[in-house]
Automatic annotation (TrEMBL):
Oxidized purine nucleoside triphosphate hydrolase which is a prominent sanitizer of the oxidized nucleotide pool. Catalyzes the hydrolysis of 2-oxo-dATP (2-hydroxy-dATP) into 2-oxo-dAMP. Also has a significant hydrolase activity toward 2-oxo-ATP, 8-oxo-dGTP and 8-oxo-dATP. Through the hydrolysis of oxidized purine nucleoside triphosphates, prevents their incorporation into DNA and the subsequent transversions A:T to C:G and G:C to T:A. Also catalyzes the hydrolysis of methylated purine nucleoside triphosphate preventing their integration into DNA. Its EC number is 3.6.1.56. Its cofactor is Mg(2+). Gene3D superfamilies: Nucleoside Triphosphate Pyrophosphohydrolase. It is found in: Nucleus. Monomer. SUPFAM superfamilies: Nudix (SSF55811). CDD domains: NUDIX_MTH1_Nudt1. Belongs to the Nudix hydrolase family. It holds the Pfam family NUDIX. Residues 1-129 form the Nudix hydrolase domain. It is an enzyme of class 3 (hydrolase). This is Oxidized purine nucleoside triphosphate hydrolase.
Length: 167
């Protein structure tokens, strides 16, 4: 079976990272970067850029691929292949939840919010994030594999910092 291709985009400033609270679907109730399935006919980079725009309202022309994560769930043959990107610039306005945008955001799939790098809400994120987020924050690239049992428990994993992502 082919891997399911997904993207994950982490927009950052020197001391803050933009995350979104997933309000429905896979990973509901968790803070995460922006992303989703790569659609037929688009490259992985194009998919990352599209999902970032759809979910956060901003455009980035400086996405850099920094991580490759593979996830398997016990009892499910489908491997998720998540391509992780970062960007330290963007154009447009973040659909943040303040004032007049509140009603609109009630219907959106993600609720974007900035988090200081020393206050990342790891306890409200996917369990794998606490392993690779520190690598991302210090500017390293990484490759990993995580075997989940249910959505909260990791039964096995492997994670390496790499110089290059030759994928
Ligand atoms: C298991 N450990 C994990 N750790 C960190 N991040 C994870 C993850 N597993 C999936 N992700 C991310 O979660 C999003 C799902 O997106 P998902 O809702 O499935 O995609 P998309 O928006 O295209 O779906 P619909 O259009 O709603 O069907 C997508 O960014 C993907 O990279």
């Amino acid at each position: 079976m082919l891997n399911k291709l997904l993207t994950l985009v982490l927009v950052r400033e020197p001391s803050r990272v933009l995350l979104g609270l997933k309000k429905k679907g896979f990973g509901e109730g968790k803070w995460n970067g922006f992303g989703g399935k790569v659609e037929p006919g688009e490259t992985i980079l194009e998919g990352a850029k599209r999902e970032l725009l759809e979910e956060s309202g901003v455009v980035s022309n400086s996405l850099e691929e920094i991580g490759l994560l593979k996830f398997e769930f016990v009892g499910d043959p489908q491997i998720l292949e998540v391509h992780v990107f970062t960007s330290n610039t963007f154009e447009g306005e973040i659909k943040e939840s303040d004032g007049s945008t509140r009603i609109f955001l009630h219907f959106a799939e993600m609720r974007p919010q900035w988090f200081y790098t020393d206050k990342i809400p790891l306890h409200q994120m996917w369990a794998d994030d606490k392993y690779w987020f520190p690598m991302f924050l210090k500017g390293s690239k990484f490759k990993g594999y995580f075997l989940f049992e249910g959505h909260e428990k990791i039964v096995k994993y492997q994670l390496d910092e790499v110089e290059k992502l030759n994928s």
